[in-house]
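Much of what follows relies on a compact textual record of a protein's fold. With that in mind, consider the following protein and its fold in token form.
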Amino acid sequence: MPPAQTDNQLAITFLYYRDLPRAMRFYEDVMGLPLAIDQGWCKIYQICSGAHVGLVDEAKGMNKWAPVKPVQLCIRVPDVASWYEYARDSGLEGLSELFVNDEIGIKAFVFDDPEGYQIEIQSATRAGA
């Protein structure tokens, strides 16, 4: 049996990039995420307490960049409408319309980061969603 999950310290999802500086600018300047850990060719940004995204230079990481990105980074925020207005004003690539999914209880939109990873910004539309 694994150790108790209360021992976990943080979660990091790693994404692989050909142009790490460009990805860094996007996550810092557009997404507003703070750099939490700088490992040189890997930059780890804090999304919220305990949750992080790691940007990895694909030339040095354990995996390689791929044109198809079957990964979505989802960030839950308290006010999805404000984020949507900001995203629209920023002219983000692949920006969807703001939509509601009653089945899972969210209001959300998606867009792409500089190398094609999809980011979803969402708010819950009901308790427990």
Q: What stands out?
A: Helices lie at 20-30, 80-90. The radius of gyration is 16 Å.
